[in-house]
């Protein structure tokens, strides 16, 4: 799974560098700034929630893909590499559920 996410992250970076908002959805979204990217991620996540609540597996696959793509665009808008998110997941792997909860203060 990391392969496609890493490739997509590289594509997003390339589209941003090219900066052709007329030809690229990614470049157009990034040009609108981090708030617009965050809002779009939120919209796509809500659409995934709606599909899940309706029990629509086919729609959930599509909305989940939209959500992952827009998560990567949002991270790019903040110059936050995906590797930092994956490292956080890996760090949590080494912590039990209860210890993790305590570490997060809850
Ligand atoms: N994975 C995606 C991807 N998922 C969703 N989307 C786009 O995200 C948009 C979200 O759907 P919406 O119905 O909300 O879009 P919309 O109606 O255009 O809404 P607005 O963006 O105008 O608000 C659609 O235009 C989708 O095409 C994506 N656009 C691009 N990618 C990947 O990014 C790569 C680069 O794309 P470009 O930047 O367009 O070259 C592509 O090769 C893909 O791999």
Automatic annotation (TrEMBL):
GO terms for molecular function: ATP binding; phosphoribosyl-ATP diphosphatase activity. SUPFAM superfamilies: all-alpha NTP pyrophosphatases (SSF101386). Its EC number is 3.6.1.31. It is an enzyme of class 3 (hydrolase). Gene3D superfamilies: MazG-like. Its main location: cytoplasm. Belongs to the PRA-PH family. The lineage of its organism: Bacteria, Pseudomonadati, Pseudomonadota, Alphaproteobacteria, Rhodobacterales. Keywords: Amino-acid biosynthesis, ATP-binding, Cytoplasm, Histidine biosynthesis, Hydrolase, Nucleotide-binding. Pathway: Amino-acid biosynthesis; L-histidine biosynthesis; L-histidine from 5-phospho-alpha-D-ribose 1-diphosphate: step 2/9. This is Phosphoribosyl-ATP pyrophosphatase. It is found in: Cytoplasm. PANTHER family: HISTIDINE BIOSYNTHESIS BIFUNCTIONAL PROTEIN, HISTIDINE BIOSYNTHESIS BIFUNCTIONAL PROTEIN HISIE. One of its GO terms (biological process) is L-histidine biosynthetic process. It catalyses: 1-(5-phospho-beta-D-ribosyl)-ATP + H2O = 1-(5-phospho-beta-D-ribosyl)-5'-AMP + diphosphate + H(+). One of its GO terms (cellular component) is cytoplasm.
């Amino acid at each position: 799974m990391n392969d496609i996410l890493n490739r997509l992250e590289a594509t997003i970076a390339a589209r941003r560098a090219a900066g052709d908002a007329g030809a690229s959805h990614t470049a157009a979204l990034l040009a609108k700034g981090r708030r617009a990217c965050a809002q779009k991620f939120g919209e796509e996540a809500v659409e995934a929630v709606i599909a899940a609540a309706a029990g629509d597996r086919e729609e959930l696959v599509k909305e989940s893909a939209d959500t992952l793509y827009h998560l990567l665009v949002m991270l790019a808008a903040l110059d936050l590499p995906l590797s930092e998110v994956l490292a956080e997941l890996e760090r949590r792997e080494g912590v039990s559920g209860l210890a993790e909860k305590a570490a997060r203060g809850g």
